Amino acid sequence: MSSKSYDAIVVGAGHNGLVCAAYLAKAGRKVLVLERRHQVGGATTTEEIYPGYKFTCCSYVVSLLRPWIIRDLDLPRHGYEILPLEATVTPFPDGRYLVRDSDPERTRRSIAQFSPRDAEVYKRFGQEMAELGRLIKPLIDQPAPDPLSRDPRELLRIARLGKHIRGQGDRWLFSNVKIMTMSAVDFLSEYFECEELIAPMAVSGIIGTFLGIRSPGTAYVLLHHYMGEIDGSFRAWGLPKGGTGAIANAIASSARALGVEIRTEAPVAHLLMQNGNPATAAGVVLDNGDEIRAKVVISGLDPHRTFLKLVGEEHLDPELTQQVKRFKMRGSSGKVNLALDGLPTLACLPGYGPHLQGGITIAPSIDYLERAYDDAKYGAFSRQPFMDVLIPSMTDPTLAPPGKHVMSIFVQYAPYHLKEGAADWPNQREKFGDTVIDTLSEYMPDLKDRILHRQVLSPWDLEQIYGLTEGNIFHGELSLEQLAFLRPLAGWSRYQTPVKNLWMCASGTHPGGGIMGAPGALCAQTLLGKRAV
Amino acid sequence: MPIPTPFHERTQLLCTSYRWKDWSGYCAVCSFDTSHEREYFAFRESTGLLDVTPLYKYEVSGPDAAALLARMMVRDVSKLKVGRVAYSCWCDDDGKVIDDGTVSRLGESHFRVTAADPTLHWLQAVGRGLDVTIEDSSARLAALALQGPTSRAILSAASGADLDKLKFFGVTRSAIQGIPVWISRTGYTGDLGYEVWCERGEALAIWDTLIAAGEPHGIEPAGLDALDVVRIEAGFVLLGVDYFSSHKVVLESRKSTPLELGFGWMVDLERGSFIGRDAIGAEMKRGSIWQLVGLEVSWEELEALYASFNLPPSLPVTASREGLPVYDDEGRQVGQATSHTWSPLLKKYLAIASVRPGSEKKGTKLKIEHTVEYERRKVTATVAPLPFYDPERKKKP
């Protein structure tokens, strides 16, 4: 039994938990962060899986981390460095390729091989998406608007937001409604005609969801990926130096400097509940039986884990339990991380060059992607999956020994629920890895000869290792019915939960997933605003 | 018309952007690619390889070499040990800065001076009557700057030098592929880095060897645009931008003193006579008119300013040398920002500025001019110490 008492305990040292803790400490609160694993970061992690090679095991790029959080927590001083991720190369089976990079003219010429018309529209599309992103920005930098509220301050805020949106003109409003409801392919087809461009662009709409590029609602996920901003410019993605784990370490370092206490290898078994109605949290109980008390407990876990494991169904209203269970997790992606003996050759663009410093997207056609989804619908991993490939050691040599490289391969689809059941993943994991390598080898013929070590992470592994329920990388799908005032539960979008003194601060809350930090920061601000501690 | 440097044969093939500029009469690459971003990150994360041949170089040798330079330089370079380099400025009789550069002691009576402007005449004038030989080695010597965290590993692989022993601001004789070179642990990036000096005829072989040795560690040919960003982060002033040579300006008010440029640490009035000493001594008693400072421009205010025009914030893509007036909180102009840039690493909009006494204290809130849609506005800029960026590896053994 620990005698210490805290203002707040944050369960889980994922990046949002750490951001939340840092903001609370900045406001003078006494905060303890408890992490089950041996290191902080959650899915924002860099691990030396193979000696000398540092893998960004899960999340692998950054752009959504809010600039104001970076400033507030002074992250650059704590080791936060973002390197540019310039190009996206899409190779096609026939040997042609599409390059999109920071040079607009080069990009235009590359697209023009496929469609001179699309080449011209591409720039305008980017501008319109950036405008939309700017329109949405106030939504992701504030708690979700509450349409049921009668609080005059909240009504004023909604009115202001409405004015902001109307101020953008009708055209933006229409685009916004469209993007909320359409499929990624339909939305993109309003602008573009050639599939070689639409397919690789549409994949942003399915990342982390159990939907196909032709499924309605995927256009929004596309926008979610377009909202990223680095240095004030939208649609800029970056590679964190030292892998994404370095971001978590920077936030942790800033949090510690502000007085936050962080304990790793301190798994929380469940909440310490106080008798009475409503259910009230009084602290946490660790796996080893230790009880730690705090005025509030803040869960950095996903909604399923928070309610069904930390709280426990016995403390919840049955209807609420149903609501929680209906919140869709449905992991659909996996990761394959490789240690490479040298650079692989991209068949369509052989040799060393800046194109290997960017992303390589395996998304050769719309049907290819849709077929990949078909496999998943029926409980199998895609025989020909969509892949987002990076060689981060090209830009950040600290990740691998000189001349050697690490490769990060994001793979979709890998459904959590296999036909044979999720528990069959250990049997299928390596077969899944083989499929990924075989598919990629069609574009990189010498890849297999370069592999020194392979790490395959199925959604089941993501659940086991990182505690992501069903392996969902966003703590719950980013589909319209699970966003804004509906995230995670209708009526509980303000980081507070039906359990008294229990708050939530991670990707399962507004505005959602990705290395964004906004849920953590907004949770802390809301909590402080309500004088909960 | 500018002429090619000895590395031109290589750089012209790599410079796919065709972006060149005139640097001391030579063709110098602004950025190899259309954007300098990759080159910037090479300086900070792997290694950037920069052709610095256009620097003016002089060999000062002979029994009185040390005496000449001790008299000319504000710093006492006569105490410099063989194998050491000193950064110094030099002044006219009125204590106004002419130029700044490095002095390397290559031998007991052999020094090498680098300068931004031609300096032969000044060396000769100061050395009149002394037993020295002065050679303008600018055209004879080619030079490359190899700068970035992996530069040591690359240079160790390419040369026989024991770089672990070469301290910050050290210089040593070495060989690359059997070709004699001088290697100095110096640079203009404020990072771990080296400069390699060789005869111009050997330039291409040195370039090729360094590029090949660099591949496993990450190496990018880099241009002046990337350099301009890193040197502002490092807080280095640039002649002709942040200050002007007293030999070149018409207005007395445009001249600068060492104290005004933050070179006060170079000054030792007790060490005996050197050019400008009395004037500097008087200025120390009287106080300086200007003070060099760093400024951090408020991003929140910039964002709000642009938002008031319904625009996203936008800054020049390269470092800017457009002089901007700086005001105090009462609206009086107290100085000017002479170089400014967005720092992708520090996530801050930085400026190097000269301000009046009273405004130079760290944390002082000033205002800097910023133009949006042809309208001139003011944005808060906070005085910050220089350098903005100072990684431990720069000086680490």
Describe this structure in words.
The complex is a heterodimer of chains A (533) and B (397). Chain A has 533 residues and is of the alpha/beta class. Chain A is built from 17 helices and 20 strands. In chain A, the strands form five sheets. In chain A, strands 1, 2, 11, 12, 13, 14 and 20 form a seven-stranded mixed beta sheet that branches. Chain A has a seven-stranded mixed beta sheet with strand order 7-6-16-17-18-15-19, sandwiched between helices. Chain A has a two-stranded antiparallel sheet with strand order 3-4. In chain A, strand 12 (268-274) and strand 13 (280-286) form a beta hairpin. The longest helix of chain A has 25 residues, at 116-140. The radius of gyration of chain A is 23 Å and the shape is globular. Chain B is of the alpha+beta class and 397 residues long. In chain B, 20% of the residues lie in helices and 31% in strands. In chain B, the strands form four sheets. A six-stranded mixed beta sheet of chain B has the order 10-11-12-9-3-13. Chain B starts with 7 loop residues before the first helix and ends in a 13-residue tail after the last strand. The interface between A and B is medium-sized, with 34 and 30 residues.
Write a short abstract of this structure:
The complex is a heterodimer of chains A (533) and B (397). With 533 residues, chain A is of the alpha/beta class.
Low-confidence stretches of chain B: none
Secondary-structure content class of chain A: alpha/beta
Which range does the strand content of chain B fall in? 25-35%
Q: Helix count of chain B, per DSSP?
A: 9
Rough outline of chain A: globular
Separate helix tally of chain A: 17
Number of strands of chain B: 19
Instruction: Give the helix/strand class of chain B.
Output: alpha+beta
Mean pLDDT of chain B: 96
From the alpha carbons, calculate the radius of gyration of chain B and give it in angstroms.
21 Å
Radius of gyration of chain A, taken over Cα atoms and rounded to an integer in Å: 23 Å
Uncertain parts of chain A: none
Describe the sheet with the most strands of chain A.
7 strands, mixed
